[in-house]
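Escalated from tier 1: cytidine-5'-monophosphate holo job.
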Amino acid sequence: SNKITIAIDGFSSTGKSTIARELAKELGYIYVDTGAMYRAVTLYVMRHLFVTESNFDEEAILRHLPFINLRFVFDEKLGYGEIYLNKENVEKEIRLMEVSNNVSKVATVSKVREMLVKQQQEMGKDKGVVMDGRDIGTVVFPDADLKLFMTASTQTRAERRFKELRERGEKVEFDEVLKNVKDRDYMDSTREDSPLIKAEDAIEIDNSNMSLQEQFDKILKLARQKI
Ligand code: C5P
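Tier 2 regenerated the structure:
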Protein backbone atom coordinates (compact mmCIF):
# COMPACT_ATOMS: atom_id res chain seq x y z
CA SER A 1 0.00 0.00 0.00
CA ASN A 2 0.80 3.61 -0.40
CA LYS A 3 2.62 5.53 2.38
CA ILE A 4 1.21 8.97 3.04
CA THR A 5 2.08 12.17 4.90
CA ILE A 6 -0.32 13.25 7.62
CA ALA A 7 -0.16 16.82 8.93
CA ILE A 8 -1.95 17.68 12.18
CA ASP A 9 -2.10 21.32 13.18
CA GLY A 10 -4.01 23.22 15.79
CA PHE A 11 -3.97 25.32 18.93
CA SER A 12 -2.18 24.23 22.09
CA SER A 13 -3.59 21.42 24.21
CA THR A 14 -6.02 20.15 21.61
CA GLY A 15 -4.70 16.65 22.18
CA LYS A 16 -2.92 16.63 18.82
CA SER A 17 0.11 14.73 20.01
CA THR A 18 -1.83 11.94 21.70
CA ILE A 19 -3.82 11.29 18.55
CA ALA A 20 -0.84 11.70 16.25
CA ARG A 21 1.21 9.24 18.28
CA GLU A 22 -1.56 6.61 18.35
CA LEU A 23 -2.18 7.03 14.66
CA ALA A 24 1.51 6.59 13.83
CA LYS A 25 1.63 3.46 15.96
CA GLU A 26 -1.42 2.00 14.24
CA LEU A 27 -0.09 2.72 10.75
CA GLY A 28 3.54 1.82 11.51
CA TYR A 29 4.56 5.39 10.65
CA ILE A 30 7.11 7.77 12.15
CA TYR A 31 5.69 10.32 14.58
CA VAL A 32 7.27 13.77 14.82
CA ASP A 33 6.28 16.16 17.61
CA THR A 34 7.46 19.49 16.20
CA GLY A 35 6.33 21.34 19.34
CA ALA A 36 8.99 19.35 21.22
CA MET A 37 11.61 20.77 18.85
CA TYR A 38 10.57 24.40 19.51
CA ARG A 39 10.45 23.58 23.22
CA ALA A 40 13.94 22.09 23.20
CA VAL A 41 15.38 25.15 21.44
CA THR A 42 13.57 27.28 24.03
CA LEU A 43 15.11 25.27 26.86
CA TYR A 44 18.55 25.88 25.38
CA VAL A 45 17.83 29.60 25.09
CA MET A 46 16.55 29.75 28.67
CA ARG A 47 19.67 28.02 29.98
CA HIS A 48 22.23 29.96 28.03
CA LEU A 49 20.87 33.04 26.36
CA PHE A 50 18.37 34.81 28.53
CA VAL A 51 19.37 38.37 29.21
CA THR A 52 16.58 38.92 31.71
CA GLU A 53 14.21 36.29 33.07
CA SER A 54 12.18 36.03 29.91
CA ASN A 55 13.99 38.03 27.32
CA PHE A 56 16.60 36.98 24.87
CA ASP A 57 19.01 38.56 22.48
CA GLU A 58 18.04 37.42 19.00
CA GLU A 59 21.56 37.89 17.67
CA ALA A 60 22.86 35.52 20.31
CA ILE A 61 20.33 32.87 19.26
CA LEU A 62 21.50 33.14 15.67
CA ARG A 63 25.11 32.65 16.75
CA HIS A 64 24.20 29.60 18.82
CA LEU A 65 21.94 27.82 16.30
CA PRO A 66 24.75 25.68 14.85
CA PHE A 67 25.38 24.30 18.34
CA ILE A 68 21.81 23.25 19.01
CA ASN A 69 21.52 19.62 18.03
CA LEU A 70 18.13 17.94 18.21
CA ARG A 71 17.38 14.27 17.75
CA PHE A 72 14.45 11.96 18.38
CA VAL A 73 15.52 8.63 19.82
CA PHE A 74 12.98 5.87 19.43
CA ASP A 75 12.17 4.06 22.67
CA GLU A 76 10.95 0.50 22.13
CA LYS A 77 9.11 0.38 25.42
CA LEU A 78 7.30 3.68 24.91
CA GLY A 79 6.70 3.08 21.23
CA TYR A 80 7.74 6.60 20.23
CA GLY A 81 10.76 8.85 20.06
CA GLU A 82 11.96 11.04 22.90
CA ILE A 83 13.72 14.30 22.18
CA TYR A 84 17.41 14.84 22.88
CA LEU A 85 19.06 18.24 23.04
CA ASN A 86 22.80 17.88 22.51
CA LYS A 87 22.73 14.27 23.75
CA GLU A 88 20.59 14.98 26.81
CA ASN A 89 17.08 13.57 27.07
CA VAL A 90 14.97 16.68 27.72
CA GLU A 91 11.55 15.11 27.15
CA LYS A 92 10.42 15.91 30.72
CA GLU A 93 12.02 19.29 31.15
CA ILE A 94 10.56 20.77 27.96
CA ARG A 95 7.03 20.19 29.31
CA LEU A 96 7.54 22.44 32.34
CA MET A 97 5.31 25.49 32.63
CA GLU A 98 8.35 27.78 32.45
CA VAL A 99 9.19 26.46 29.00
CA SER A 100 5.55 26.80 27.89
CA ASN A 101 5.68 30.43 28.98
CA ASN A 102 8.61 31.22 26.70
CA VAL A 103 8.29 28.93 23.71
CA SER A 104 5.95 31.02 21.57
CA LYS A 105 8.34 33.94 21.72
CA VAL A 106 11.28 31.83 20.61
CA ALA A 107 9.07 30.37 17.87
CA THR A 108 8.71 33.82 16.29
CA VAL A 109 12.42 33.87 15.35
CA SER A 110 12.56 33.14 11.61
CA LYS A 111 16.03 31.58 11.65
CA VAL A 112 14.88 29.14 14.33
CA ARG A 113 11.86 28.20 12.23
CA GLU A 114 13.97 27.84 9.11
CA MET A 115 16.33 25.41 10.84
CA LEU A 116 13.55 23.31 12.36
CA VAL A 117 11.41 23.24 9.22
CA LYS A 118 14.40 21.90 7.27
CA GLN A 119 14.91 19.12 9.80
CA GLN A 120 11.19 18.30 9.76
CA GLN A 121 11.11 18.09 5.98
CA GLU A 122 14.12 15.77 6.08
CA MET A 123 12.42 13.50 8.65
CA GLY A 124 9.31 13.26 6.50
CA LYS A 125 10.90 13.00 3.07
CA ASP A 126 10.07 9.30 2.61
CA LYS A 127 6.43 9.78 3.68
CA GLY A 128 4.94 7.35 6.19
CA VAL A 129 4.93 10.15 8.74
CA VAL A 130 2.49 11.77 11.12
CA MET A 131 3.68 15.22 12.12
CA ASP A 132 1.94 17.60 14.49
CA GLY A 133 2.47 21.30 15.10
CA ARG A 134 1.24 24.70 13.95
CA ASP A 135 2.53 25.06 10.40
CA ILE A 136 2.80 21.50 9.12
CA GLY A 137 0.01 21.65 6.54
CA THR A 138 0.83 25.21 5.53
CA VAL A 139 4.64 25.43 5.51
CA VAL A 140 6.41 22.14 6.26
CA PHE A 141 4.33 19.85 4.03
CA PRO A 142 1.93 21.97 1.97
CA ASP A 143 1.39 18.89 -0.21
CA ALA A 144 0.54 16.55 2.67
CA ASP A 145 -1.95 13.82 1.70
CA LEU A 146 -4.10 14.37 4.76
CA LYS A 147 -4.32 17.60 6.74
CA LEU A 148 -6.19 17.93 9.98
CA PHE A 149 -6.87 21.02 12.00
CA MET A 150 -7.77 20.29 15.61
CA THR A 151 -9.69 22.72 17.74
CA ALA A 152 -11.46 22.76 21.10
CA SER A 153 -12.79 25.54 23.28
CA THR A 154 -10.21 27.51 25.27
CA GLN A 155 -11.76 26.38 28.55
CA THR A 156 -11.64 22.71 27.56
CA ARG A 157 -8.02 22.98 26.49
CA ALA A 158 -6.95 24.80 29.64
CA GLU A 159 -8.73 22.19 31.79
CA ARG A 160 -6.96 19.35 29.98
CA ARG A 161 -3.57 21.02 30.29
CA PHE A 162 -4.15 21.83 33.97
CA LYS A 163 -5.06 18.23 34.74
CA GLU A 164 -2.01 16.97 32.86
CA LEU A 165 0.38 19.30 34.68
CA ARG A 166 -1.14 18.52 38.10
CA GLU A 167 -0.91 14.79 37.43
CA ARG A 168 2.78 15.30 36.74
CA GLY A 169 3.14 17.04 40.07
CA GLU A 170 3.55 20.64 38.88
CA LYS A 171 2.16 23.16 41.32
CA VAL A 172 0.31 25.35 38.84
CA GLU A 173 -2.90 27.32 39.26
CA PHE A 174 -5.72 26.99 36.78
CA ASP A 175 -5.70 30.71 35.97
CA GLU A 176 -2.02 30.58 35.08
CA VAL A 177 -2.63 27.67 32.70
CA LEU A 178 -5.63 29.40 31.12
CA LYS A 179 -3.56 32.54 30.62
CA ASN A 180 -0.74 30.54 29.01
CA VAL A 181 -3.15 28.82 26.62
CA LYS A 182 -4.66 32.17 25.61
CA ASP A 183 -1.30 33.92 25.27
CA ARG A 184 0.10 31.15 23.09
CA ASP A 185 -3.03 31.07 20.91
CA TYR A 186 -2.62 34.77 20.36
CA MET A 187 1.12 34.76 19.71
CA ASP A 188 1.01 31.67 17.50
CA SER A 189 -1.79 32.96 15.31
CA THR A 190 -0.58 36.55 14.97
CA ARG A 191 3.16 36.09 14.41
CA GLU A 192 4.49 37.24 11.07
CA ASP A 193 6.39 34.10 10.06
CA SER A 194 4.23 30.98 9.60
CA PRO A 195 1.28 31.93 11.79
CA LEU A 196 -1.07 29.21 12.92
CA ILE A 197 -3.88 29.11 10.38
CA LYS A 198 -6.02 26.33 9.03
CA ALA A 199 -4.77 25.25 5.61
CA GLU A 200 -7.50 25.62 2.99
CA ASP A 201 -7.63 21.89 2.40
CA ALA A 202 -7.43 20.86 6.06
CA ILE A 203 -10.28 19.01 7.73
CA GLU A 204 -11.29 20.72 10.95
CA ILE A 205 -12.04 18.56 13.95
CA ASP A 206 -13.48 20.17 17.07
CA ASN A 207 -12.88 17.64 19.79
CA SER A 208 -14.41 19.56 22.73
CA ASN A 209 -17.02 16.85 23.04
CA MET A 210 -15.26 13.86 21.53
CA SER A 211 -13.62 10.98 23.34
CA LEU A 212 -10.13 9.91 22.37
CA GLN A 213 -11.57 6.75 20.84
CA GLU A 214 -14.06 8.71 18.73
CA GLN A 215 -11.31 11.00 17.47
CA PHE A 216 -9.01 8.10 16.74
CA ASP A 217 -11.68 6.19 14.80
CA LYS A 218 -12.61 9.22 12.76
CA ILE A 219 -9.03 10.13 11.89
CA LEU A 220 -7.98 6.56 11.14
CA LYS A 221 -10.89 6.28 8.73
CA LEU A 222 -9.82 9.49 6.98
CA ALA A 223 -6.27 8.19 6.72
CA ARG A 224 -7.31 4.79 5.38
CA GLN A 225 -9.27 6.50 2.59
CA LYS A 226 -5.97 7.98 1.35
CA ILE A 227 -3.75 4.95 1.71
O1 C5P B 1 2.74 21.65 20.38
P1 C5P B 1 3.25 22.41 21.57
O2 C5P B 1 2.16 23.04 22.38
O3 C5P B 1 4.19 21.60 22.41
O4 C5P B 1 4.12 23.59 20.95
C1 C5P B 1 4.74 24.55 21.74
C2 C5P B 1 4.90 25.86 21.00
O5 C5P B 1 5.85 25.72 19.94
C3 C5P B 1 3.66 26.41 20.33
O6 C5P B 1 2.84 27.16 21.22
C4 C5P B 1 4.25 27.29 19.23
O7 C5P B 1 4.64 28.56 19.74
C5 C5P B 1 5.51 26.55 18.85
N1 C5P B 1 5.35 25.73 17.65
C6 C5P B 1 5.43 26.34 16.41
N2 C5P B 1 5.36 25.59 15.28
C7 C5P B 1 5.21 24.26 15.33
C8 C5P B 1 5.09 23.61 16.58
C9 C5P B 1 5.15 24.38 17.73
O8 C5P B 1 5.58 27.55 16.35
N3 C5P B 1 5.17 23.56 14.20
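Residues 68 and 184 are 23 Å apart (CA to CA).
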